[in-house]
Specification:
The chain has 327 residues and is an all-alpha fold. The chain has one domain: Rhomboid-like fold (Up-down Bundle). It contains eleven helices and four strands; from the N terminus they run βαααβαααβαβαααα. A two-stranded antiparallel sheet has the order 1-4. A two-stranded antiparallel ribbon has the order 2-3. The radius of gyration is 21 Å and the shape is globular. The two termini are 13 Å apart. One of its GO terms (molecular function) is serine-type endopeptidase activity. Keywords: Hydrolase, Membrane, Protease, Serine protease, Transmembrane, Transmembrane helix. InterPro entries: Peptidase_S54_rhomboid-like (IPR002610), Peptidase_S54_rhomboid_dom (IPR022764), Rhomboid-like_sf (IPR035952). Belongs to the peptidase S54 family.
């Protein structure tokens, strides 16, 4: 797997360099009396990802599939749940073949074997226990707050659609490796946080600090994505999808409209949304539909995105004296 896999945000990263491990929620204070939802979908996503990893390791069965190889399975006392040798998978996880069998994103299978379901199934798979834990920690930190404020429907849509958006962009630009992980969906939530702050700008206090914090978090995580074997295209695709969806799904009424019943009759005629919110909603919806349409058409026609953008490969890996992006 060391030369074949391309795990989203986790594969073969140096210690403490996991891009998904840097997520954090900025200290927002919202001037609103809207009710808080009880989060249950995000915890369910966490449980589902952990359960899927257990299934993957059960199917992998390293002691049986690794027979005849010099390197031994890691943590052999776990039996069939033991991990592949570290030379094959340093993230303490299954083999590439097992991941492909259970739904990893692989370009030729999506395009030539018409297995479009892999665009979604790969979100539930993780390359190793390190990859899984870092992503689930990020999901809890980001997702719980968003679900409390906007409910499970909006956050569930953003998570899944952003994950598919990341898969589409990854498939367009990376066609010789497999890709797994929820990082595209997580970047979608991060992008939605940013657009939510922008579209609901007037109801926030500490606006500048919140915006600066989010921009720094996004910049750091995308910068780490230029390391080799990290699928930064999935990050970018998921982020852009979530960013546009945030304008559509996370729009809030202005504070005066929510509190209109407590205002004098002459002040109760307050519009629910501001004009700029409507404009952002329309523009984001158009761009989202257009982006998905173009991306899916290009993908299923078997086109290579790198042929249309000669410099885009630097967005996922920048060659240095220490590593070669082509290897």
């Amino acid at each position: 797997m060391s030369n074949q896999d391309l795990e989203r945000g986790a594969a073969k990263n140096p210690p403490n360099s996991n891009p998904t491990g840097n997520y954090s929620a900025p200290p927002y204070h919202v001037e609103t009396s809207e009710k808080q939802w009880t989060p249950w979908l995000v915890p369910m996503f966490v449980v589902a990802n952990i359960a899927m990893f257990i299934v993957v390791m059960y199917v992998n069965n390293c002691p049986k599939t690794n027979l005849g190889f010099e390197d031994k399975c890691v943590a052999g006392f776990l039996g069939r749940f033991s991990f592949q040798p570290l030379k094959e998978n340093p993230l303490l996880g299954p083999s590439s073949n097992t991941l492909v069998k259970l739904g990893a994103l692989k370009w030729d299978k999506v395009v030539h074997e018409h297995q479009g379901w892999r665009l979604l199934s790969c979100i539930l798979l993780h390359a190793g226990i390190i990859h899984l834990l870092s992503n689930m920690l990020s999901l809890v930190v980001i997702g719980i707050r968003l679900e409390q404020q906007f409910g499970f429907v909006c956050i569930g849509i953003i998570y899944l659609v952003a994950g598919v958006g990341g898969s589409v962009m990854s498939s367009l630009f990376i066609q010789n490796s497999i890709s797994v992980g929820a990082s595209g969906a997580l970047f979608g939530l991060l992008g939605a946080m940013l657009s939510e702050l922008l579209t609901n700008w007037t109801i926030y206090t500490n606006k500048a600090a919140a915006l600066f914090t989010l921009i720094v978090i996004v910049a750091i995580n995308l910068a780490v994505g230029i390391l080799p074997h990290v699928d930064n295209f999935a990050h970018i695709g998921g982020f852009l999808t979530g960013f546009l969806l945030g304008f559509v799904l996370l729009i809030r009424p202005q504070f005066k409209w929510i509190e209109r019943h407590h205002l004098p009759p002459s002040a109760q005629r307050v519009p629910k949304y501001k004009i700029y919110q409507y404009i952002l909603w329309i523009v984001a919806a158009i761009l989202l539909v257009a982006g998905f349409t173009v991306g899916l058409v290009m993908l299923f026609r078997g086109e290579n995105g790198n042929k249309h953008c000669s410099w885009c490969h630097y967005l996922s890996c920048v060659p240095t004296s220490r590593w070669d992006c082509g290897n």
